[in-house]
Amino acid sequence: MKKGIGMISTLLKSLGYVKGEPLTFLSKRICGLWLVWIAAVILVGTLFGGAQMISMPIFATGYFLGFAFILANKRVYKKLAFGRPSRFQNRMTVISIFLAVLLLIGMGGPFFDSHQYRMIWLAAFLAFGIHFFPFAAVHGKIMLPLGALCSANAIAGMLLPNVPFPIFAYGDVTVMGIFGIILLRSKNPLAMEKPASETLRADKPC
Fold first, then answer.
1. Fewer Cβ atoms within 10 A, N terminus or C terminus of the chain?
2. Which ranges does the record mark as transmembrane (predicted)?
């Protein structure tokens, strides 16, 4: 037990985590905008999905545009972010994305040859649901229920093949849309963490 905890502690330290230092989540609104955008892309892709369930051209185009105009856009970052994430958080972001890619290939890849689009997309939903969990270190605990709900929705779709796929696609859209809006409405955590001494000075009568 102690050995396992020690290994985890060493791993976190190698990623740049400073023990005892609280994490500040400064880019929650960017994550929120991204979730709302991807939810909209999945919605449109499902409406025009046809045999592919979700139109791959629509999804690919929407994903690329979202990446270019949200995640890689300095103006959007400057407007929505309250500061820059720590080195540890940057590394956790990379790990989360790498995890998503591995899961997408591992779970969805086997279904491409047989064109089982339902399983391809449900595997994608599950992969992204799982990759939300390590993002809790970047955007806060809100990512845990988001990941749990997205994963549960995907697993339900796999276990209930007789239920039409759009039900689960719209479920994923709803979950990401709601959590995206919540994250978009996040307040500046730095403004909420005013030092006690500063608060006392402000409250003390002149």
1. C
2. 30-48, 54-72, 93-112, 118-135, 142-161, 167-184
Please give the Cα distance from 55 to 169 (Å, whole number): 12
200 burial (CB, 10 Å; 0-12 / 13-18 / 19+) is: exposed
SS (H, E, C) 12-67: HHHCCCCCCCCCCCCCHHHHHHHHHHHHHHHHHHHHCCHHHCCCHHHHHHHHHHHH
**How many domains is the chain partitioned into structurally?**
1
Claim: this prediction has a pTM higher than 0.90: no
- 130 assigned to some structural domain: yes
Residue 129: inside a domain? yes
Q: What is the pLDDT of residues 41-69, one digit of tens each?
A: 999 999 999 999 999 999 999 999 999 99
Cβ neighbour number for residue 170 with a 10 Å cutoff: 18
One-letter amino acid identity for 199? T
| pLDDT at residue 194 is higher than 90 | no
Instruction: Using the predicted structure, report yes or no on whether residue 202 has a pLDDT greater than 70.
Output: no
